[in-house]
Amino acid sequence: MSNQPDKIYAMRHSLAHIMATAIQRLWPTAKFGVGPVVENGFYYDIDLGEQKISEDDLSRIEKEMQKIVKENQTFERFEQSVDEAIEWAKTGNQPYKQELLNDLKRAGTTIAKDLDASELGLEAQEGSKVENVSFYKNGDFTDLCRGPHAESTGKVGAFKLMRVSGAYWRGKEGNPQMQRVYGVAFDTDKELRQYLAMLEEAKKRDHRKLGQELDLFLFSDMVGSGLPLFTPRGTVLRDELAAFSNELRQQYGFEKVWTPHITKKDLYEASGHWAKFGDELFLVKSQETSDELVMKPMNCPHHTRIYASQPRSYRDLPVRYLETTTDYRDEKTGELGGLNRVRALTQDDSHVFCRSDQIEDEINNLLTAARDLYATVGMGLRVRLSYRDDSDAYLGAKELWESAQGQLKNAVIANGLDYFEQEGEAAFYGPKIDFMASDALGREHQVATVQLDFVQPERFGLEFTSEDGSKQQPVMIHSALLGSIERFLSVYIEHTAGRFPIWVAPEQVRLITVNQELVTTDFAAKVLQEAKSLGLRTTVDNSNESVGKKIRAAELMKVPYTVVIGEKEIESGKVVARIRKDLEVATEHQPIGVSEFLKTVANEAKSRVNKTSL
Fold first, then answer.
1. CA-to-CA distance for 54 and 163, rounded, in angstroms?
2. Long-range contacts of 170-179 (CB under 8 A, 24+ apart)
3. What H or E segment, with its residue span, contains residue 305?
4. 97: which of 89, 213, 282, 457 fits an S-S bond (Cβ 3.0–4.6 Å)?
């Protein structure tokens, strides 16, 4: 969490130790794993053997932590040799700490890259021998730790323990399962209260809850984990968002292509994906041939085949393909959750094949399209420039990476985008621009991406004939505006709380009949027909319920416009629409002719506005 202010980081880190101190007081035989700082707080992995910490125990731990805070114990740092530290862990019956220390002794700091280095007391560089490790002591509790910490336990701000969950030691199935106790912490009580209030609001907006209440999507045990099914209402959301993404890209010359959902394993061996992600692919067996087939996890290798299907001249470039299609990845069942992470993910995928002198224009086009999309859905954007680190996890020459990273940064600066840089977040074949969208609760989510790739064109032998007749290699640019549509929907549903703007609302207008008399139902049917002729998603509630109950039902489904049809409306040919409050501009609404009302709503939908003009 290097981007957190040092003070907040130290406070949260100190609270992880204070929580461990409290747990050791309450359960003296507790064995400890690691306790790092995470976003907004901290956690510690605990093993109590046959005993288990329950949600009810969190208040007990909190009370003990408050006692330790009042004791104002000083955090004291000291060092020991690795051998002395191993003996400390052995004597204190701390097998997890002992395992970490033994690994460090054998492998230097290399293995620390897979763990939380802030808990290991490390000062040595990668690959060098570890001589000493550091400890921090507060009161009777001592822990292996690099720090930093607050000056004392009395200077740690406001905190609250949130939950306890299971966690495999070192994140590996087959290792002992520990209990992970989470807490949040802030500098002041006010900040803590605001955060807890935001969490309460987030519960109301949970996309899994709203998905069921608004009849958008579901999961079925008979279909399988991580394989969502979208209802007619939810499919409207998918289709409208995908259509908008396609429209934005087609403005810049992208053309639709289509590729099959299964392919030979050879394609991904050639691209390099098999070596990196082979264990994440679904394997498919043919009963007719001996081909080794897989469900496609991404689309870029397929698009290289379309590019390579005919000779290309420098005059033909750039070549731009778009494909909104479902890919498949064998995600671990424990990591699946609602639409956030699924096994069938639909991407609004794009690939540009261009000359190096065309890169800036192409990236500018994609950046503009992304800004237009997120402005329309009402989400703020900033950019993360995702670079490689110094590890060997990336393909391609370092010089090419440096050139690509520089060009991405120049494009972002030229577009005046707020950005930050982060090493180690690049894909294995190229640096990228990750768009971070802020939702209505201030939470940030990674969504769109634009990525340069010098590796796949080389691996697939892609080429074009240059002006001087020589064969040159094109640059490949990957991009997606929404990313995974399923994941985007998990964010968007919560961002809007299910109150979708008119253009994307599954049901735009609901007509409510006052009674079931023939004259009323006939008039409603004519209005429905006119609405549908304008492309409006409209329904009629002609049920034998009171008007009040019908209106309430429309409100629960968050329908933008509800129109009551009775004798007055039939005689005048005018209606006064009930408008969902978040769409309103005026507080009073005058009667309006039915046709004028419907045309106004249709124009709003076409224009993708977020407020009504009625």
1. 9
2. 170/33, 170/114, 170/115, 176/47, 178/33, 178/45, 178/46, 178/47, 178/96, 179/45, 179/46, 179/47, 179/48, 179/52, 179/53
3. helix 300-307
4. 89
Q: pLDDT tens digits for 271-298?
A: 888 887 888 899 999 889 989 999 999 9
Domain that holds residue 515: 509-607
Mode of pairing for the β-strands spanning 509-513 and 561-565: parallel
Name residue, tokens 């000779």.
311
8 A C-beta contact, residue 591 and residue 574: yes
Mean pLDDT of 542-555: 96
- Report residue 137: phi and psi, to 5°: -125, 130
8 A C-beta contact, residue 443 and residue 408: no
Q: Per residue, what are the HEC states of 561-598?
A: EEEEECHHHHHHCEECCEECHHHCCCCCCCCEEHHHHH
pLDDT in tens, 223-270: 999 999 999 999 999 999 999 999 999 999 999 999 999 999 999 999
Does one domain contain both 424 and 570? Answer: no
From CA 36, how far away is CA 44, in angstroms rounded?
7
Judge if 443 and 565 occupy the same domain. Answer: no
Band of the pLDDT at 120, cuts 50, 70, 90? very low
Q: Please report, for residues 111, 531, 588, 594, 606, the alpha-carbon distance to residue 600 in angstroms, rounded to integers and kept in the order given.
A: 63, 11, 17, 10, 10
DSSP labels for 61-95? HHHHHHHHHHHTPBPEEEEEEHHHHHHHHHHTT-H
Identify whether 504 is part of a domain.
Answer: no
Q: Are 490 and 336 in contact (CB under 8 A)?
A: no
Average confidence score pLDDT of the chain: 91
Assess whether the previous peptide bond of 301 is cis (omega < 30° from 0): no
Per-residue tokens: 326: 């479902």
Q: How far apart are the first and last CA of the chain?
A: 48
Q: How many CB atoms are located within 10 Å of the residue 518 CB?
A: 8
- What is the predicted pLDDT for the residue at 122? 43
Distance CA 376, CA 475 (A): 30
Interstrand relation of 380-387 and 419-423 (parallel, antiparallel or unpaired): parallel
490-514 pLDDT, tens digit each: 999 999 999 999 999 999 999 999 9
Confidence of residue 27 (pLDDT cuts 50, 70, 90): very high
How many Å apart are CA 16 and CA 136, to the nearest integer?
12
Task: Tell me if residue 512 falls in helix, strand or coil.
Answer: strand
Among 601, 469, 588, residue whose Cα is nearest residue 533 = 601
Q: Which amino acid is at 410?
A: N
Asked if 492 and 513 sit in the same domain, the reply is: no
> CATH no. for residue 383?
3.30.930.10
Instruction: Look at the chain and report how many structural domains it folds into.
Output: 3
DSSP 8-class letter at 219:
-
Evaluate whether residue 412 is within a structural domain: yes
In angstroms, the Cα distances linking 9 to 12, 44, 181, 195, 298 are 5, 15, 18, 17, 38
Which tokens is 48 given? 């109590």
